[in-house]
From TrEMBL:
<dbReference type="InterPro" id="IPR006073">
    <property type="entry name" value="GTP-bd"/>
</dbReference>
<comment type="similarity">
    <text>Belongs to the TRAFAC class TrmE-Era-EngA-EngB-Septin-like GTPase superfamily. Era GTPase family.</text>
</comment>
<feature type="binding site">
    <location>
        <begin position="11"/>
        <end position="18"/>
    </location>
    <ligand>
        <name>GTP</name>
    </ligand>
</feature>
<feature type="region of interest" description="G3">
    <location>
        <begin position="58"/>
        <end position="61"/>
    </location>
</feature>
<feature type="region of interest" description="G4">
    <location>
        <begin position="116"/>
        <end position="119"/>
    </location>
</feature>
<protein>
    <recommendedName>
        <fullName>GTPase Era</fullName>
    </recommendedName>
</protein>
<feature type="region of interest" description="G1">
    <location>
        <begin position="11"/>
        <end position="18"/>
    </location>
</feature>
<dbReference type="InterPro" id="IPR030388">
    <property type="entry name" value="G_ERA_dom"/>
</dbReference>
<dbReference type="Pfam" id="PF01926">
    <property type="entry name" value="MMR_HSR1"/>
</dbReference>
<feature type="region of interest" description="G2">
    <location>
        <begin position="37"/>
        <end position="41"/>
    </location>
</feature>
<dbReference type="GO" id="GO:0005886">
    <property type="term" value="C:plasma membrane"/>
</dbReference>
<keyword id="KW-0472">Membrane</keyword>
<dbReference type="GO" id="GO:0043024">
    <property type="term" value="F:ribosomal small subunit binding"/>
</dbReference>
<dbReference type="GO" id="GO:0005829">
    <property type="term" value="C:cytosol"/>
</dbReference>
<dbReference type="InterPro" id="IPR004044">
    <property type="entry name" value="KH_dom_type_2"/>
</dbReference>
<feature type="binding site">
    <location>
        <begin position="116"/>
        <end position="119"/>
    </location>
    <ligand>
        <name>GTP</name>
    </ligand>
</feature>
<dbReference type="GO" id="GO:0000028">
    <property type="term" value="P:ribosomal small subunit assembly"/>
</dbReference>
Amino acid sequence: MFKSGYVALIGKPNVGKSTFLNLMIGEKLSIVTNKPQTTRTPIKGILTTDSYQIIFIDTPGIHESQKKLNQVMLSSIKSTIEDADVCLIIADSPGNDYIKNYEDLLLKKNVILLINKADKLTKEQIDSIKAEFLIINPKKIIVTSLLRDNPKDEILNAILEELKEGPQYYAEDEISTHNVRFIVSELIRETLIENLSEELPYYVAVVIDEFKERSENLTYIKAIIYTEKDSQKAIVIGQNGSMLKKIGSSARKKIEDFLGTKVYLDLWVKVKKGWTKNEKLIKEFLSE
Ligand SMILES: Nc1nc2c(ncn2[C@@H]2O[C@H](COP(=O)(O)OP(=O)(O)OP(=O)(O)O)[C@@H](O)[C@H]2O)c(=O)[nH]1
Ligand SMILES: [Mg+2]
């Protein structure tokens, strides 16, 4: 019997959802940083074998915020849960009040609770996390550390127990529904988050303007980094262009690893005033 289904990855910012997706797929599809609110758009990763196909959907971390950009990010989460066959909730610390807002929705679903970062948690903390999620009645609870342990098989078995017979939705060699340009723009955004301090990462967006295979072994990529204000643009460029140079060379290495070719990365910084408050621009900048 061939099994298939959609698994939604749900949790607060920074709990390890993208780390989880990359571990399961074995490729870096979703960017990971030590700062919260890294993922902005649902990222699909597909795992296919002879006997099953699982489509994982990595979502932006759930948090309370009235900001327009955050609202657009969060509006996708409820529909991702509704469409999912299994909800995998990841938590890395006590304090998961948000779950009350999803109670009705989650009670109708098969829920697996993954308590991550066990390398940093006490037994008391693990027990309080378990208690917080009792209201949504998880089918299974796995306590692990995605970085330290290798929980892939244990998690896969738990998911497969909940999945039913189903079709193969995607070709077996397809690991993502996102195109290469989108993943490249995310690798540049990840590098920006790593290098910029405080709030600034939340005001940048990256759009790929040109993507050309100049030869078998050289890809030319022109990307535009948008900021909200002139002052932010100045920080991204840095003194005599030093910051942009650093970001460019670090991002280029990641893209070369991902594409397997040499890359000429042409980075430009432009100001789009107030883009994080403008729904049309948000959708344009966050699109895959
Ligand atoms: N100590 C520890 N850190 C971990 C573990 N798993 C993931 N992390 C780290 O947690 C941080 C956040 O990981 P992400 O995968 O980006 O988290 P996320 O849930 O996707 O975050 P958002 O996209 O912001 O919602 C990264 O620095 C990871 O390296 C773990 O088992 N132990
Ligand atoms: Mg993420």
